[in-house]
## 1
Amino acid sequence: MLGIQDKWVLLAYVLCIVSTLLCVLYGYFNWNKGDTEVKPEDKDDKM
Amino acid sequence: MNILANTTMDVWTMISVVAYMLLIVYLGYLGYKRTKTATDYLIAGRQAHPLIMALSYGATFISTSAIVGFGGVAGLFGMSLLWLTMLNIFMGIFVAFVFIGGPTRRMGHRLDAHTFPELLGRRFDSKFIQIFAGLTIFIFMPLYAAAVLIGGTKFFATQLGVDYNIALFIFSVITVTYVFMGGLKGVMYTDAVQGAIMFIGMGILLVWTYKIVGGIVPSHQYLTDMAPLVPGKLAAIGHQGWTAMPKFGWGDTKYNLWWIVVSTIVMGVGIGVLAQPQLALRFMTVKSKKELNRAVPTGGIFILMMTGVAFIVGAVSNVYFNQHGAPLTGRIVKTINAEKGFAVLQIMKKDDTGGWVDAVDAKGAGKMAPVTLIKSEPVGAKTVDGKEVSIVQGRSISVVYAGGDPEQIIPTYITTAMPKWFGIVFLLTLLSAAMSTLSSQFHALGTGIGRDVFVQITGKEEYTLGVTRIGIIIGFVIAMLWSYYSQQSSIIIARATAIFFGLCASAFMPTFFGGLFFKRMTKAGAISSMIVGFGITTFWLLFVKAQEAGAVGLVQRLTGGKDSLLADKPNWPVVDQIIIALPISIIVAIVVSMFTKPPSKEHLDKCFG
């Protein structure tokens, strides 16, 4: 498949693309999610 | 190999390079103008834009050694290196940003940590950890920086036709200036633009390459069919073709290549990335998890376009050279496959008398090359001593056209296969790759000796910035000296990337991950793990791993000339230190933590909220 001789190399080739798609989809579905800034109560520095 | 050779574009090259340098200097100045506090200088004010952060992370991660060095290795060993690309994307981006980045950012904010060693030190309430980590970075990172500096300088010098030492001076002084003045803001602004240039350069390279070798599937199929052309020396250590994994097993030298590819290249670099101080620091430069989430797509696509393209082009370059390379002339010494026209040629050339003589290499041995014969009748000819000989022509594989040096495969390919204007684009791509990695190394060196060592020992926190800047200059001078005296690429410099990644993994990773996810981990567990990881890595490099141990020479004095304490045991001398040191370091961290007093609830509240 894809002209590649060894199934392990083919798997690496496919997983590179799948991993990249995973990154893109994760960013897309979590674009506005995630905690906000650490609040002052959760928490030194002019040049 | 001059990738701009025989072009009339020297003026355009100079204009492009000068324009690029002016843009970089301007961005460094912008970073300087926007740096108002130590937090700005050390961690970009914790306000970095997700796109800038992702490009900065990627551009810092990818240096010339990833594109030219490892790309050349893919030209030699084949597509099995794509496992490293997979790990780079999945572990280096997805796992790092989604699972490691959030806790690192939160804990970094809570503990007000400004550097990676400071994060570890404050998590375990230990000055020793911060100083030990800072010193480790300061002592070993100049090696890694020198490797990047040499790679960048060599291209800069050969492409522009200037002296190596002048190129070294110009290239490094511009880089250290914007780091010194602009701090991490200057570094990240320039990284982002350099990352964009790299993305464009590698994108063109991928599309153009697949176009000239006939498309994705036909080129892969051709590469698969070339398997019988694997040189005998590589076949003997397990090379089975450019679209196959090396032969897997243990206890025989015919499995050596599998252990080189998987343990050193794939695991050493692919896992080691998770504990790189200059990369982990990037997670502390954004203000919330939302920014990290938004950085993930850019990071994933960027890394695919860097190592993915370099490794595919490196491997597929064999197809290009076998189809379009300059014909090699000689006599057949071995027929590999008569039907397909595969043979081993003794390369021959005509001498002054018109007779044919065998070409020889630097050691005086006959120059051999695996070739696909060009369909034509052999020509009868005479050798210089009057013997009849059948002269044939054939085209070979990438490493033959690169003069036997894998590092020359990508530059040779760019010169012969790509259009002339791409030489300039690729030069800027490599300059960007080198400078973006180097700038973060200088920054980490400065903060390592300044914030993590000097301030911790003296307690004079108000001197952080001044000492950090002095540290940047000291680190710069050490890297310059390494580069000046090692310009012929000693084996240690050439292996510095994998050595540094492996060292960080074994010495820092258990402490870093334990600190983020394992509340029961103790100060004693962290310190023991770091020392054991560091110690085993150093021992393995000095006494067992043949390539590095042989280069240092200490083991040869102990064993009477052998390159490894385990030289008589097959496979052991090529196993990477990370395979041994990291598991032991993890076990030590867990066992020591289990048998020592757990951290107080108050301290854990500080760290985890």
## 2
Amino acid sequence: MIQTKPAPAVPGFDYAPSPETTPVKVRDRYGLFIGGDWVAPKSGECFATINPATEEKLADVAFANAEDVDRAVEAARRAYDKYWRKMPGSERAKYVYRIGRALTERSREFAVLESMDGGKPIRESRDFDVPQAAAHFFYHAGWADKLEWAVQSPERIHSLGVVGAIVPWNFPLLIATWKIAPALACGNTIVLKPAETTPLTALLLAQVIQEADLPPGVVNVVTGDGRTGSALVEHNDTDKLSFTGSTEVGKMIRRSTAGTGKKLALELGGKAALIVYDDAPLDQVIEGIVSAIYFNQGHVCCAGSRLLLQEPIYEEIIERLHARIETLRLGNPLDKNTDIGAINSRMQRDRIVEMVNSGISEGAHLVQASCPLPERGYWYPASFFTNVQPTHRIAREEIFGPVLSIMTFRTADEAIERANNLPYGLSAGIWTASGQLGMYTAARMQAGVVWCNTFNQFDPSSPFGGYKESGFGREGGLAGLRDYLR
Amino acid sequence: MLEARATILTKRSIKKSSKLAGIDIAIACMDLTTLEGKDSPGKVRSICARAISPAPGVRSVAAVCVYPTLVPECVRALEGSSVLVASVATAFPSGLSPLDVKLRETREAVAMGADEIDMVIDRGALLAGRETEVFAQIVAIKEACGQTTLKVILEAGELGSYATIRRACDIALAAGADFIKTSTGKIPISTTPGIALLMAESLRDHQRKTGRAAGLKLAGGIRTTKAALGYLSLIKETLGDAWLHPDRFRIGASSLLDDLLMQREKEITGSYSALAYVAQA
């Protein structure tokens, strides 16, 4: 166009750093939360939890050995017999609701702590993890005095007893609440074992629970590593185990609990397929892919890590996706404008590097965002592989990082076959403008959750869980609630 | 996904030096607008004076946007400044007049000295499926504009779906629009983050396919600095920094300038001024 008058120069527009400044009090040392009190571990040991974005130590956390776990289960059993199983649902509801309220009131503090301990962007912990966690308490508070409507027969509204819960490091607070909220609403007491690298928000939640005046022992938190988890799994006085984590550990738990009569729920790994048909709106598809694989640095069990593109749109999607990952802002997780935070631990970063190397050596082509990585901390740029073959490791094994494997298909049936041709089955994504094609494909997905023209939509009223080696049992909704009753 | 993405982009945290830079860009890209039945030469002179010098030490805005009969007054008042004269035309705001009437209105506005023409598309024709007619009308108006910049108002809030808005963007760009513009500002839903992102995506795709960079004008409903900065982020991250320039980006607004000046003062001095300290037109 022709300007009749020269336009004056304008300033540049870059985002100044905008770190979240809500102060968070992190104690130097944390004990175990057992029987309503903070107690020193019998093990006499502790371990450090670090900030993966800076590699700086945040706190020393108590290590719970088998004796400590035993104490916690005993406290939970006592609380179950003495208070919680006898308390009317309407009273339990008040406590569950109170925890939800406290979590909401202190939401920014929880979000900052979650980002410090785990490396996820503050935008995600602030807008997703913490509000969802609070929503789970509110949702389940509502059920506590209405359980006879949740099950078909009134004789099935008995609580189970003591629940052992083991949660992973990718959504430390949120997945803990997926287990705590329904357990409490249904009249069970609980022993929670947070992940070794991310114990702090569970410990802050314990503080909130203490301040909410829950009867002592209804919720107990034992921190530690795999040994602590094993002790909890092998303890013979729990009535249910709920585990979220890797398929490998899930299998061990299933072996160990076989024949014990304990209820078991496992939410394990995944390698979800995103099927994109050539009639899909491509800009929406790109955003769907970004959410599916780069949300929380790809540390998501339901991440859409296999992209199946219909051949006619293959090149266009690759070009657009490449341009899009260049716009992702990687850096300080506490900066409000950060899109990609830190990788949760050195171990996980090494695992991602190892998987990516296997992809390269098997002949796939790696494309990565060109952004510089901070010198300290654990980082990995948004990446994807083209020229991936279904037999490659990167097409079959969970990477649990911001790395996408891209393949193609010709027909719907071929896409469905490829999507289902794995031992996993947690989630799936379908992109098409055709309602008919979307329904046809969704009905044939072997996955616990199927998202159509969207991804990563969660709600406490909607059950979540897997097929095949992605586990069994559901969390959220009526199906999830019933798993905490007998 | 469109609205979710638009929400993230318009909620970026813009602080300190970025905020000040953003405010200056928003002012530089502003089409200060008065489009009322009661507009008079006196009112236009006031608006033009403010457009040239919004406040002491503050740069001029990009353009003043008026009805065609007020173009001569606007031209006189803006003479010697960098501020362009923009005129709505083509039976604004409905667009429902015969094509020859719309063409004549356009030619006269150009002849009277308008640097830019803001036309409206025939939404009735588009929704009735007469896309070629909509396309042909834009081509005809563009021809009538000659060297004058043409902004094409889609009135997105009337089009009923994102798919239709996107279709309208593609038609307008194919027909040679120099800018595509969200709204007349005369209806309740004018500019939303979702609409802005969708239009930005169409501009990006148009450039990718044809190599031609056209501009985006957001008009209606943008009243706060926070909202304006949100749209700057949306454009920066969708189209790139090259679009944060009056050649490729405009905000059509009447009251936004007040808040921009107040926020600018606050960034510089650390305290808010009352509205009474901001000279209005």
